């Protein structure tokens, strides 16, 4: 079920920031469960970014057009320049709007030495979700909590 929107300026329920190597999980798990199963509209760069435009400008635009930002955290993603940029833009949008918009998802365990200060503060001050691929009950709970986070009115 798509989140109740008190403002119609959003095109997406969430912008999804992730590493290219995690696209299989995005496509086969996240999109299947949250879009097909629960009716949310997510913005992912593989599908929703127009070709030939400046990537940084598209990211800023899509974050601004999304109610929330989901950070899909893996060691590869947190070490990338795109993580720094997307986290920075999401935090900027959060401060500008005065709304808590960041949802952190730890897809695979993160070595402590790969987490920068900004991400450490996000993980320390916000609830985050952890994906447990081998535990069916944990997966059901994960999807329910992600649904709650996306439908939460801020």
Quick recap:
The chain is an alpha/beta fold.
Structure description:
- Belongs to the Toll-like receptor family.
- GO terms for molecular function: signaling receptor activity.
- InterPro entries: TIR_dom, Toll_tir_struct_dom_sf.
- This is TIR domain-containing protein.
- It is found in: Membrane.
- The chain has about 150 residues and is α/β, with parallel strands linked by helices.
- The chain has a single domain, classed as Rossmann fold, CATH 3.40.50.
- It has helices spanning about 25-35, 45-50, 55-65, 75-80, 80-95, 115-125, 135-150; strands spanning about 10-15, 40-45, 65-75, 100-105, 130.
- The chain has a five-stranded parallel β-sheet with strand order 2-1-3-4-5, sandwiched between helices.
- Strand 1 (about 10-15), helix 1 and strand 2 form a beta-alpha-beta unit.
- The longest helix is centred in the middle third of the chain and has 17 residues, at about 80-95.
- Residues about 1-5 have low confidence and may be disordered.
